[in-house]
Amino acid sequence: MVMLATLVGWLAVLPAAAETIEFTIGDPRITESSGLATDAADSRYWTVNDSGDRGIAYALDDHGNTEGTLEFRAQPVDVEAVAFHRGRLYVADIGDNRARRDFVTVYFFDEAAPGAGPVSYKAYDFSYPDGPQDAETLLVDGDGRLFIVTKGTKAGIYAAPTDPSRQGVNTLERVGDAPPFVTDGTVLPDGRYALRTYVSVEIVDPASYQVVSRAATPAQRQGESITTTFDGGALLLGSEGKRSKVLRVDVPTSLVEVPTPSATPSPTPSDSPTASPTTSSPTPTAKASPTNGDPADAEDEPTDNAAGGGSPLSGTGTIAALGLAAVVAVVAGVVVVVIRKD
C-alpha cells in the first residue's frame, strides 16, 4: 500500500503527455505487441509478440496494416524487444521472468524486409556480470553498439562489447542505473535514449546515463513499447492487446523531480535471482541453430546461432510482480485521466 500511495503521489506531479492516435494494429495475430522499431527509409515499423510466439517479426505500414512478416527458424524463449539500425533488424530474446537463463540471445537480420518464407539469421549471446536478469529493452546507438536495459526495482543499463562475437557468450557491462520497470526503449536522432516505464517516458543522456527529462505516459491497457516517428520528431507508444492503439506523444523537454518510492515490491525472480548459472562458462545450445532445411547462409553454423535456455512464465513471485504492474498501470490511467479533467 505504501508503494501504491507513493506511485499515486509520483503520478500526480508528472505532467501528462498530450497524445493522438497514430494508428491501430489490426492484425489479429498481434495480440501482445511487446516492442516497436522504426525503419524510416522504408516507411515501415516492426513489432514482435511477447513470449510464446515463434521466430517471427511483423512489418507494419504507417496505418498499422501488416505488410508482411519476417520469419526465421529459431526457437526463442521469450522475445521482448525489437530494434532497427541502418538496414539491420534486431529481435531480442531477452525476457527472463524467473531469472534462470545463463545467457540471452539477440538475433539480427541484414537488409531486413518482409518476405514469403523463412530467412537466414545470425545471433549474439550475452550474459550479465551480476547474474541472470529480466529485460524487455534493447537499444542500438548511432555506432551500432547494443545496450540491454533490465527491468525491476534495481534496473540497469548494460552495454555489449563494441564488437561482439558470434562464437560463444559475450559478457555485458553494467554502465549505469535505469528507472524502475522499463518496458521498452529507443534511441533518438540526437543520441539520447527514450525509455518507457509503466507510468512515464524518461529521456536519458548517453554520456552520464542520467535522466534529463520526463513526462507521464497516457493511459494504456498495458504500455509495453516505444519508438520514434519516421522523422524522429515525436514518440510512438504501443500497448499489448488485440487491435491495440499506438499513440503519438511529444519528446519530453522538462525534468520533473519525483519522490523515490519509499517501499519496494516483495522480491520477485526478476529482482532477486533465485537460481545461479549452471555453469561458469555457459555454452550456447543448439536451440537457436538453423534446423535442417533452414536457408541459413554458410556463416550460420550451429555454434554461431544460439539461444539461452529458459523457463515459461510461472511462479507466485512472477504473478505477484505482474499484479503489481497491473495495479500501477491502472493507477497511472486513473491519475492521468483525473489530471486531464482538471
UniProtKB/TrEMBL annotation:
InterPro entries named among the record's database cross-references: 6-blade_b-propeller_TolB-like (IPR011042)
Signal peptide bounds: 1-18
Transmembrane keyword on record: yes
Keyword set includes NAD: no
Region described as Disordered: spans on this chain: 257-313
Entry keywords, A to Z: Membrane, Signal, Transmembrane, Transmembrane helix
Listed transmembrane segments: 319-339
Biased composition regions of type Low complexity, renumbered to the chain: 271-291
Name under which the protein is recorded: Phytase-like domain-containing protein
Organism: Microlunatus phosphovorus (strain ATCC 700054 / DSM 10555 / JCM 9379 / NBRC 101784 / NCIMB 13414 / VKM Ac-1990 / NM-1)
Species classification: Bacteria, Bacillati, Actinomycetota, Actinomycetes, Propionibacteriales
